[in-house]
Design a protein that fits this description.
Layout lengths: L2 H5 L4 H5 L16 H15 L3 E5 L14 H7 L7 E5 L5 E5 L4 H7 L9 H5 L3 E4 L3 H7 L6 E4 L11 H11 L10 H12 L4 E4 L1 H9 L3 H24 L6 H14 L4 E2 L4 E4 L20 E6 L1 E2 L7 E6 L6 H20 L6 H15 L11 E3 L19 E4 L2 E4 L4 E4 L2 E5 L4 E3 L8 H17 L1 H10 L1
Parallel strand pairs: 1-5, 3-4, 5-6
Antiparallel strand pairs: 1-2, 2-3, 7-10, 8-9, 9-11, 12-13, 13-16, 14-15, 16-17
Helix pairs in contact: 11-12, 13-14
């Protein structure tokens, strides 16, 4: 990594200072106890009877910080491994079950919240029990819990929604040696075997309906995440120059969101230059950029368990060519039409029709515009929400038109995450430039600063 990436001043901290108090750098400062209590009450209102049982994740992610199962976190905010949550739909009481740690586990990992006497009150829980008591607890309350709500649909992850996870499972199972029950299916079967008299129902649709509409606390986090993620892409723009490796620009973006209080990226960062810009899912980020390349960066932070998505495309040498400018203007015009059409009551199909009208009105030829109109955003960067579902106030959605001309190594994608408001939408990631003159002006100013400090950079490289 070149020293300039880490040694240059990060002005973004001053930019974000009003939104990022010192408390924002502490874990899970974006939520209150009342938020989780409200969510559980809303789910109880939907299910009406029996109990809801949700299992937390059981294993740490390889090579990454642990991130709790989305649905489980949504209802209680607990980040400990192997936890189980039981919600009584009639009384709205919530009971948490946690494994008792061995001495060595506590010594190595620190004490779990089972040891903290304040946990029950802090999370608004009725009880916290040792995990070994779970089946006995269920049996003791069999008359009250004859109906049990489990998640029978696929889990989603930080970057993929339930449909995508089911699709990936189908691909995995093409090899019959991989064909096995998912952990969620296995848990449902085990529960039914142990408690055969219980009626099992799927809680997934109710959870999805709740997760679609963001609360005031979630909206505040999304707004902050929009500023942080936009600044990360802007810093990548400023740092870029001919001869950079794609991963160097990724490092700049990652550094920015981590300093902004995020835990990690919400999806594998995409830094695609030259021919790679025509590959929508390219994320190897290993190519060295060359003069004349376009660079496409698709990035977003995972902040307090909420994702973000923003994409910008720019010329590595600071100036769009005629062909690059033509394609870029088409995609930008389409994105603006998408944003204008994104409002309560509209669907993604309505956005597509609005784009068609805008293209004809402006005299543009779409020349094979590809890519979906976008996706919902929330706990997963590809969040719950059906494609034909009308927008409602409080939803978050990423608009991401793209056009790829492979024979010219020319791919352009422009994406912003928006919050659906009463009369339209609020662009959460607007702080990073997307107009051609703004991009070229930013890159020219950045180039002047780099040239002026080249001697200092050489000294720094010698020291590191």
């Amino acid at each position: 990594m070149r020293a300039r990436r880490w040694m240059k001043p990060l002005l973004m901290l001053a930019l974000l200072a009003p939104a990022l108090s010192s408390a924002a750098f502490a874990q899970r400062t974006g939520y209150t106890k009342e938020e989780f209590v409200r969510r559980r009450a809303a789910l109880a209102e939907k299910t009406k009877e029996g109990m809801v049982v949700l299992f937390g994740d059981s294993l740490p992610q390889p090579g990454a910080h642990f991130r709790q199962d989305n649905d489980f976190f949504y209802l209680c905010g607990v980040e400990d491994l192997n936890a189980v949550l039981v919600l009584n739909a009639k009384t709205r009481d919530a009971h948490l079950f946690l494994p008792r740690q061995l001495t060595r586990e506590e010594m190595m990992d620190g004490a779990s919240i089972l040891r903290d006497p304040r946990t029950r009150e802090n999370l608004g829980l009725a009880n916290i029990y040792d995990l070994s008591y779970f089946d006995e607890f269920v049996a003791r309350n069999a008359k009250s819990f004859a109906v049990t709500w489990l998640r029978l649909g696929p889990a989603d992850t930080v970057d993929f929604d339930r449909t995508e996870m089911a699709m990936f499972a189908g691909r995995k199972d093409r090899l019959h040696y991989n064909n096995q029950l998912s952990l969620g299916d296995y848990r449902a079967r085990q529960f039914k075997d142990r408690h055969p008299s219980f009626e099992i129902k799927d809680v997934t649709p109710h959870l999805d309906a709740l997760r679609l509409i963001k609360s005031a606390e979630e909206i505040a986090i999304l707004r902050r995440n929009g500023r942080i993620s936009a600044e990360a892409v802007r810093q990548s723009m400023i740092a870029s120059r001919i001869g950079d490796f794609e991963y160097e620009l990724e490092a700049v973006a990652l550094q920015t969101i981590l300093l902004g209080g995020a835990r990690s990226a919400a999806a594998a960062p995409i830094v695609a230059s030259g021919p790679n810009s025509c590959l929508p899912r390219y994320d190897k980020n290993m190519r060295r950029t060359a003069d004349g390349d376009l660079v496409l960066v698709d990035f977003g932070a995972d902040l307090d368990h909420l994702g973000m998505s923003v994409t910008r495309t720019w010329p590595i040498n600071g100036k769009f060519t005629k062909d690059q400018r033509e394609i870029y203007e088409i995609v930008l015009e389409v994105e603006k039409a998408c944003l204008e059409a994104t409002k309560p009551g509209a669907t993604q199909e309505d956005i597509t029709r609005a784009v068609d009208r805008a293209m004809k009105r402006k005299g543009f030829n779409s020349r094979g515009l590809v890519g979906d109109t976008g996706h919902f955003v929330g706990l997963s960067v590809h969040d719950v929400g059906a494609k034909g579902q009308p927008f409602r106030e409080g939803m978050a959605f990423a608009v991401e038109p793209a056009l790829y001309i492979a024979e010219k190594n020319l791919g352009v994608r422009i994406a912003d995450t928006v919050l659906i408001t009463r009369n339209g939408c609020e662009v959460l990631t607007k702080a990073v430039p997307k107009e051609i003159d703004e991009i070229e002006k930013l890159l020219a100013a950045a180039l002047q600063r780099k040239i002026g400090s080249e001697g200092d950079l050489k000294k720094l490289r010698g020291l590191l």
